[in-house]
Amino acid sequence: MPRVLPFAIYIAFIIIADVLERCGLAGSTLRWLYPVKTALVLALLLVYRRHYQELRAKPARRDVLLAVGIGAAVFLLWIVLDAPWMRTGTQQAFDVAGDDSRIDWALVAMRAAGAALVVPLMEELFWRSFLLRWLHQQDFLSLRPSRAGVRAATISVLLFGAEHNLWLAGIVAGIAYTLLYMRSETLWTPILGHAVTNGLLAIWVIATGSWTYW
Fold first, then answer.
1. Rounded to whole angstroms, how far apart are CA atoms 175 and 214?
2. Which end of the chain is more exposed for a tag (fewer CB within 10 A), N or C?
C-alpha cells in the first residue's frame, strides 16, 4: 500500500481530469488539478516515509554520476522520439494561462517542481521498488534488485511505457531506470535519473513553450 496508493491516486486524478474534460469542463478549470494531486501524493509519501526501507541505502558516487548522465540522455531521446507512430492518443497541452491569458508562472513552477521532485520518487517506488520485484516474487522486499528476472523487467518496462503518451520514449526511459536500479541496487539512482530527465524536460518545455510535453 505505501508504494501503490500514491501512484494510484496520481493516476486517478489523470482519469478524473480526462472524464471532466470530456464532459465539457474547460482546461483552465482543470489545470489546478495538477497541484492538488501533487500535494496529495507528496502528503502520502510523507505519511508512509517510514515504510520505504530501500531509501536508506545511499548510492555510490559513480552511480550518482551515471544516473545524472543517463537521465540527461533519456531527456534527449524523449524529445526526439515523438513521431506520430510513437504516440498514443492526442496529448493535450498543459494550460498555463491565467485569467488574463498570460502565463501563470506560479502554476508553471508548481508543475515543474512536481514533475522533477515528486513524480520521480512516487513512480520509482511503484514501478521499480514494488512492481519490478513483485512480479518476480510476492515477498518483494526481500528481493535484491539485481535478482529481478528478465520477465519481470520486461513486463514492468512495457507497462511503464504504456503509461505515457510517448510510449516508445517511455519504454526507453523504463529500460534506463530499471538498469540503473538493478546495477546499483539502490532506488536513489533511478530516482535521480528520473528527476534529471523530468527537470531538464521542464526547463526545455518552459524555454520553448512546448506545453504538449506536459
1. 21
2. N
* Domains in the chain: boundaries: 57-213
Q: Which of 47, 34, 33 is nearest to 5 (CA)?
A: 47
User: pLDDT tens digits for the chain (214 residues)?
Assistant: 999 999 999 999 989 988 888 887 766 677 788 899 999 999 999 999 999 999 999 999 999 999 999 999 999 999 999 999 999 977 777 777 665 578 889 899 999 999 999 999 999 999 999 999 999 999 999 999 999 999 999 999 999 999 999 999 999 999 999 999 999 999 999 999 999 999 999 999 999 999 889 8
User: What angle do helix axes 188-208 and 61-78 make, rounded to 10 degrees?
Assistant: 40
Query: How many angstroms separate the CA atoms of 150 and 194, rounded?
Result: 21
Q: If we measure between CA atoms, which residue out of 121, 94, 130, 131 comes closest to residue 14?
A: 94
| Residues paired with residue 87 on neighbouring β-strands, in sequence order | 166
**Phi, psi at 72, each rounded to 5°:** -65, -40
The span from the CA of 64 to the CA of 72, in Å, is 12
**Identity of residue 188:** W
Whether the CA torsion 31, 35, 36, 40 is positive or negative: it is: positive
Q: Is residue 71 within 8 Å of 194, Cβ to Cβ?
A: yes
